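cron nightly-structures :: item 1 of 1
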Amino acid sequence: MMIEENNQQIEPVSSVMKVFAILSALSEHKSLGVTELSQIVMTSKSTVYRFLQTMKMLGFVSQEGDDDRYSLTLKLFEVSSRAMEYVDLVALTEPYMASIGEQTKEALHLGIRDGDGIIYIYKVDAQYNLRMQSRIGGRNPLYSTAIGKVLLAERPESYIRDILVNTEFVPSTDKTHRSIDSLLEELKKVKEQGYGVDNEEQEEGLRCIGAPIYDRLGNVIAGLSLSFPTLRYTPEKFDRYVGLLQNAATKVSEKLGHSK
């Protein structure tokens, strides 16, 4: 269902507004009781109590023993820190993606892991008529994408199995991995060579190369990829694309504090 927003005033959701009012009040005090909070947000104590219990269950507030006082945890800080990390990541990566896009005229994507899949957080469209159909916010599997492979390649086998334990390996093409064991074999090569390849595993006629981006702790937090139709493939072009991606990914990683 499409939601019409053009020239229409969106009606605020009162419960959401009250939750944020509680968070705002708690951010200005070491701790507050239900009575104090109900007065600040002008809501009944029973309603405030229910909100607090839900927020406590989600880990955003803590209760001091059996006392009637609540305080913020560091969960909001963790959430905002991750958000800032990806905002910085897009800002740092965008100039390199634009440059590679101009040099190759092919599509580029910046992706991160989201559960057992990847999600695209930035893209540069190809300048050809024949190009990959994708969008920012779009999702694809870890097991059939170049970005997914570089996100997994340096992780322990137990970690990879835990992430993919309930994943159905859907064969998008006849080249798609059918099992974790099959994927694990390829990931050894991905780790060794420093880049991943989707060789028509996600879409017939489409190849993709991905390079890892590291944070200051040496963890792979994102993948930078270039996609192109197989009809434009040559060994020389492939090697050039790998070099461009690895060079850009290394420079972004360095700006994030990573050093080998």
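cron nightly-structures :: done
Residues 1-7 have pLDDT under 50 and may be disordered.
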